[in-house]
UniProtKB/TrEMBL annotation:
Lineage: Eukaryota, Metazoa, Chordata, Craniata, Vertebrata
PROSITE patterns per UniProt: LITAF
Stored Pfam families: zf-LITAF-like
Keyword DNA-binding carried by entry: no
Membrane topology: Peripheral membrane protein
UniProt protein name: LITAF domain-containing protein
An example Gene Ontology CC term for this record: nucleus
GO molecular function: zinc ion binding
Keywords: Membrane, Metal-binding, Transmembrane, Transmembrane helix, Zinc
SMART domains, A to Z: LITAF
Presence of the UniProt keyword Electron transport in the record: no
Signal peptide span: none
Amino acid sequence: MANAQIPVVAVGPLGDGPVQVSCPQCHQMVLTQVDYSSGLLTYLFCGGLFFCGFVLGCCLIPFCVDRLKDAKHTCPTCKTILGVYKRL
Ligand SMILES: [Zn+2]
């Protein structure tokens, strides 16, 4: 099976902001580092705006809005991915 997914350590409910968790990898209390990546909702928004008749440039706006993006939590100490918060 070609599963290219990065192993994710689930540490509990994650929001779209940094949370304090006990890292299962390095066993320290850390404040997660959050990376925002364009998720499904971003693309839906993009498509939605596009079909509403916005000019091409406007439909790229969702890609600049962190609120619409998936939040990936990583441990700042050992860089382990602790979880991904998805919008959908
Ligand atoms: Zn860690």
